[in-house]
């Protein structure tokens, strides 16, 4: 897909910078410029497409749509809607309150809360450009599966009493769902592309910069020994390290790409990326406003175990 770009960057590195592509600095510079342009192109395309689709699913409409389903179908729908309506950790509390007010079961609410931060259009675009369709589709599939089963387990545990009592008394009221013309949806998507890239470009540059350094200079034998597919506990360690971190998937994926290029297991690298986006200490602190510590611990434990199993699955099949 990007052979033209690779050839262009080859010329840039060799003819403009006068560097050998096979040298450590030459390969790092190539990685840096190639990934920046490739990722920005893919980001713009995918953010536009998903934003256009998302214009049909504002949060209020998503909530009303999920209300119609119950049982496992509710978990599946909530996880699928989590793909097109991603939110950051700071949005978890108002969304949680909105779902509880609408009397959506706790298990279905958590299916949405688990899938939504894990799967987002920008991460999908970068995975597509870095690893191809197979891994990008598996990434979405695993995020949905995690959300469905995580929500089902939390629902079966009957943890409603672990929600703070005041949450059940909140009345947010009905919000009018705005109708948009096709023209408005188009400009909504365009503005979303501008807004997201404006917000994340610095994370992207830092992530690609670290990835370029790893690509050229990180000791391959050391990484393979401690994080390669042959190390049976590599996935567990990478997930446990990532859980307390607060990071952006967009900055993490270029690092994962470089690590995989050095021999780190694909599942190990993806488990690290998914754990940094799905779980973080700041998110736990925010959720403490609405749910009790026991439910937070169960949410983190269930999601962490799911991510670890997904990491091992990726390492086995890829």
Automatic annotation (TrEMBL):
User: Would you tell me the Gene Ontology cellular component terms?
Assistant: plasma membrane
Q: How does it sit in the membrane?
A: Multi-pass membrane protein
Subcellular location per UniProt equals: Cell membrane
Q: Which residues form the signal peptide?
A: none
- Membrane-crossing residue ranges in chain numbering: 31-53, 74-100, 106-128, 135-154, 200-218, 230-247, 259-282, 294-317
- Annotated coiled-coil positions are none
Q: Which InterPro entries match?
A: DUF318 (IPR005524), UPF0718_permease (IPR053166)
Q: Which domain of life is it from?
A: Bacteria
| Major localization listed first in the record, in broad terms | membrane
Q: Which UniProt keywords apply?
A: Cell membrane, Membrane, Transmembrane, Transmembrane helix
Annotated family: Belongs to the UPF0718 family.
Report the protein name in the record.
Permease
Q: Which organism is it from?
A: Oceanotoga teriensis
């Amino acid at each position: 897909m990007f052979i033209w770009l690779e050839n262009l960057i080859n010329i840039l590195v060799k003819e403009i910078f006068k560097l050998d592509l096979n040298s450590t600095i030459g390969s790092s510079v190539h990685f840096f410029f190639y990934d920046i342009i490739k990722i920005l192109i893919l980001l713009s395309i995918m953010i536009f497409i998903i934003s256009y689709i998302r214009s049909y699913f504002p949060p209020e409409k998503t909530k009303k749509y999920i209300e119609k389903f119950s049982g496992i179908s509710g978990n599946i729908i909530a996880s699928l809607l989590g793909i097109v309506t991603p939110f950051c950790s700071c949005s978890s509390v108002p969304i949680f309150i909105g779902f509880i007010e609408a009397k959506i079961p706790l298990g279905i609410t958590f299916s949405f809360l688990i899938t939504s931060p894990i799967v987002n259009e920008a991460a999908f675009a970068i995975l597509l450009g870095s690893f191809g369709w197979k891994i990008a589709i598996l990434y979405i599939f695993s995020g949905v599966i995690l959300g469905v089963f995580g929500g089902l387990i939390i629902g079966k545990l009957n943890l409603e009493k672990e929600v703070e009592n005041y949450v059940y008394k909140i009345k947010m009221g009905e919000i009018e769902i705005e109708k948009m013309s096709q023209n408005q949806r188009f400009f909504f998507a365009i503005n979303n592309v501008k807004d997201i890239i404006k917000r994340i470009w610095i994370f992207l540059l830092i992530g690609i910069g670290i990835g370029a350094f790893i690509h050229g200079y990180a000791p391959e034998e050391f990484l393979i020994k401690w994080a390669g597919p042959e190390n049976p506990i590599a996935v567990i360690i990478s997930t446990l390290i990532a859980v307390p971190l607060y990071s952006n998937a967009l900055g993490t994926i270029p690092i994962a790409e470089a690590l995989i290029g050095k021999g780190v297991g694909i599942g190990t690298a993806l488990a690290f990326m998914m754990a940094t986006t799905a779980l973080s200490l700041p998110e736990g602190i925010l959720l403490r406003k609405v749910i009790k510590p026991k439910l937070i611990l169960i949410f983190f434990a269930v999601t962490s175990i799911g991510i670890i199993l997904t990491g091992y699955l990726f390492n086995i099949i890829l």
